[in-house]
Amino acid sequence: MAARNRQLADGLFDEAKAAYAAAAEAGSSPADCTNCGQCAAACPQLLPVNQLLAECREALA
Amino acid sequence: MEQDFAAHTPKLGFGLMRLPKTKDGAIELNETAEMVDRFLAAGQTYFDTAYVYDNGASEEAARKTLVERYPRERYTLATKLCAWAGNPTEQEAKAQFTTSLERTGAGYFDFYLLHALQAGNYQLYDQYGIWDFVKEQQQKGLIRHWGFSFHASPALLDRLLTDHPETEFVQLQINYADWEHPDIAARENYEVARRHGKPVIVMEPVKGGALANPKPEVAKLFTDCNPAASAASWAIRFGASLPGVVTVLSGMSNLAQMDDNLSYMRAFTPLSAEERAVVRRVQELLGQSKAIGCTGCRYCVDGWH
Question: What are the helix and strand counts (H, E) for chain A?
Fold first, then answer.
């Protein structure tokens, strides 16, 4: 999400892609999401986390 | 009737969810202890942890850096029971209370919360009898005050406070960016709590740190008004300025954040009319933001489900 916000909030696409790549390398890749939805159920910000992860992967992978 | 504790609690609370970490991800206890020292030396008293924070390491850090180093009457400690994270049974959920007492070594909790009530989980607190359970612990003298933290609609908050009028306080996500947010509904939830006469503890005043590093046009509005004030100070003072707010929890992660927060909260002054006007202009700017409202709390990972 932090990587995606570098793009959406700050307009820094290259930095966003680099942050996404670093997170993926560290083992936090949205590509691993199975779309089970448990993350969204736990989110106190009521975010559709699985949907946002898919958009993040689409935009930055 | 306004609760007595509301009048006697300093306005800055130390949230223990985002403590400094070592390279291997463990809580850095030396820096945490120094933060605790500076916090207490500045006259602040309120510490907030939870059974689930850092898989229990936050409560243990509270014991090592606070409870074992200071007399019990020097501080107040809050922790929380989560009936839904990790899908506990009723027995397991209630056992969190004993575990929290053991981990912290605090002997009792000044504040105890039902953790993160949301539309999809609040039923578990009824089903497991947690409301009565915390009242039983209070009668035993193991809890001084109890309430709940909440992330859902004003309608549900109204219902919960109507069904449980004995609730002593509520903990709400309040910051200027979420004040009119359609889902977070900070203003409306705050107003519901006030209508029920409940003191409010503010969480996520800086929105997971996002409001400490605002975009340049927002930062300019702040610095034009007060060049010396940090962006975080605007966010924390916004929450602390609201009537009925007991304290504002800041999840500080390093000494610099602690020092900055203490610099303006040691002798807190509410936002002036001029400052409130600046915040309104900032809210207008943020209303156009496309940013995802993630606060980095990691509830979606770290074994929360």
Answer: 4, 0
Could A39 and B120 be called an inter-chain contact, meaning their C-beta atoms sit closer than 8 Å?
Answer: no
Dump pLDDT digits (tens) for A1-16.
Answer: 888 887 887 778 888 8
Provide the CATH number for the domain formed by B4-286 in this structure.
3.20.20.100
Q: Which residues of chain B have pLDDT under 70?
A: 1-3, 302-305
B162, B124 Cβ separation under 8 angstroms:
no
* A51 to chain B: closest CA residue: B292
Q: What's the pLDDT score for residue B303? A: 56
Asked if B170 and B140 touch (Cβ cutoff 8 Å), the reply is no
Residues in chain B whose Cβ is within 8 Å of chain A: 85, 116, 118, 120-121, 151-152, 173, 183-184, 215, 289-297, 299-301, 304-305
